[in-house]
């Protein structure tokens, strides 16, 4: 299935049962809520998906099961976060075999590769597959920045098509557009900068709080793209305290707690992560409860 790299792409959480197995029933409940809200793709195995805690067979199951669940409505994207080029190439092969339509790729994990090593890593994987690739550029959390000069080299690979822009520097969107035009699609990867990024020309939004609030997220995107900026901004201002739950070391626990509150998830996380407790839990619940109580009425955003 062709990947347009525009619109809202939820980086979905992975659901677990109380005995720490994949909870595909609740996972499908969430996926169907995303589809009903009008999302444009599904991303598996990102930070929110607890990728580092998933077993290899679980990743295979998630991809194939999600492909079945979406039934061709939207593309399924698998994240690659590996320590070696060899493992990344194998992961790309498995993602395609299991039905993924595209890949999101982090730079090499653990080892802080230099620019040349990072470019070589991306090119090796890109040249090993025909799946389209979105570069995940997040130097704040993963310590390697994919610079504009590096993108110049990556542009040689036709299937490196987009970037999840998570540098936290809004002006980087303008730099990308000034240098490359529309060669790379740009998707905001930071919830609290998403609308600002769309105003600056980003094509889409890889979203986190969409996991709990899919309709509001898609409404913001579609209203902005339709030129109804004030309506988008009003919803975004309501959303911001919730979006800030995504820029936190415990974003997985925060967002899963929000999914419970909206009825499309469970709180179960995989150790060493633990569910929130005490004052921390009370604080997050207060933000979620306030958001739900003041939830805005949405226009008919699906028919703009």
SSE inventory with pairings:
Elements: E1 7-10, H1 24-37, E2 42-44, H2 56-70, E3 76-80, H3 85-97, E4 102-105, H4 115-128, E5 133-137, H5 139-142, H6 148-154, E6 160-165, H7 171-180, E7 185-188, H8 194-199, E8 204-207, H9 214-225, H10 229-243, H11 251-261, H12 278-293
Parallel strand pairs: 1-8, 2-3, 3-4, 4-5, 5-6, 6-7, 7-8
Helix pairs in contact: 1-2, 1-9, 3-4, 4-6, 9-10, 11-12
CATH H-level superfamily: Aldolase class I
Q: Gyration radius, to the nearest Å?
A: 18 Å
| CATH classification, class level | Alpha Beta
Percent helix: 40-55%
Sheet-strand content, in percent, reads 5-15%
Distance between the termini: 25 Å
Strand adjacency order, main sheet? 1-8-7-6-5-4-3-2
CATH architectural name: Alpha-Beta Barrel
Could you please describe the fold and organization of this structure?
The protein is of the alpha/beta class. The chain has one domain: TIM Barrel. Helix content is 45%, strand content 12%. The chain contains 12 helices and 8 strands. The chain has an 8-stranded parallel beta sheet. β3 (76-80), α3 and β4 form a beta-alpha-beta unit. α3 packs parallel to α4. The radius of gyration is 18 Å and the shape is globular. The model has no long low-confidence stretch (mean pLDDT 97).
